[in-house]
Amino acid sequence: MPRRSLLHRSSIPFPAAHAVGVASGWQRWGVNLHWPAALTGRGSSEGACVTRLMAAVQTDMAGYSRLFALDDTGTVERLRQLRRDWIRPAIDHHQGMLVQTAGDSMLIIFDSVAQAVRSAVAIQHGLALDNENWPDDRRIALRIGIDLGDIIMDGMDFHGDGVIIAARLQAMCPPGGVCISRAVHERGGHRLGLRCEALGPLALKNIARPVEAFVLWPSHQEATQVVRINTRR
After folding, report:
1. What one-character-per-residue DSSP string does 39-74 give?
2. Based on the structure, what is the number of domains in the chain?
3. What is the pTM of this model?
4. Position 178 in a domain
5. Which of 54, 77, 84, 85 is the most buried (most CB within 10 A)?
6. What Cα–Cα distance (Å) separates residue 58 from each residue in 46, 142, 209?
7. Does an H or E element contain 184, and which?
8. What is the pLDDT of residues 173-197, one digit of tens each?
9. Surface-to-core class of residue 182, CB atoms within 10 Å of its CB (0-12 exposed, 13-18 middle, 19+ buried)
């Protein structure tokens, strides 16, 4: 079996065997296909994995089932529009990579903790601005969790404590906020001029030790920044 490589940023790093299915699915959602620098040019063969210390961002939509029951096709189209108009520009601007989607959830990875937090805040502001055009019962809110840890890439699958803890923090996050771990907080995740609320140590599912967590609340300054990102598309 020939060696499979993660190609340069300008290339699409899909083995031919499942390039059509995966690439077409990501392109349908308007997803960025560029690898972060930590993974660029690194190879993986059958049975081998790539492990890197990276920031993992997990997102999930609050009230998805209710909105889907009200208008299934309209909700899916709205998610596509949000990814195209707000989410992808924020990820691209902060040099991240959207690597997995599952319905209303996303996994995004970054080389930089600060860039991960800034991207998450920009996404939250984009949704807040977009929601101004919708009635209260049709507004979309995201919960976002961020952790820093070793991420294992196995083909198109991503594993590791960083991914798992980010997902658990996302589930604990209030809609509209960004929940970060102590590891993210210590590496400057709190030094962005945002209101920071300490949640204390949290007992997370299938995580042996409590994880100290904080919620960041976006500021007006970041809202101005996300408008600039969007208008430069």
Report:
1. TTT-EE-TT--EEEEEEEEEEEEETHHHHHHH-HHH
2. 1
3. 0.75
4. yes
5. 54
6. 27, 10, 20
7. helix 182-184
8. 999 999 999 999 988 766 677 788 8
9. middle
Helix segments in 10-146, DSSP class H:
19-28, 64-70, 72-82, 88-93, 113-131
CB 82 within 8 A of CB 74: no
> How big is the chain by its Cα radius of gyration, in Å?
17
Q: What is the CATH number of the domain that holds 194?
A: 3.30.70.1230
Distance of alpha carbon 33 from alpha carbon 40, whole angstroms? 12
30 falls within a domain: no
Domain extent, residue 111, equals: 44-231
For residue 74, what are the contacts with CB-CB under 8 A and spacing of at least 6? none
C-alpha distances out from residue 189 to 77, 85, 154, 224, Å: 32, 25, 28, 19
Cα 204 to the chain's mean position, in Å?
Answer: 19
Length of the chain: 233
Cα–Cα distance for residue pair 162/171, rounded to 1 Å: 14
In order along its 233 residues, the chain shows pLDDT tens digits of 443 322 222 222 333 333 333 333 444 334 444 445 545 444 444 557 888 899 999 999 998 889 989 899 989 999 999 999 999 999 999 999 999 888 889 999 999 999 999 999 999 999 999 999 998 888 999 999 999 999 998 877 889 989 999 999 999 999 999 999 999 998 876 667 778 889 989 888 888 789 899 999 886 444 444 434 343 33
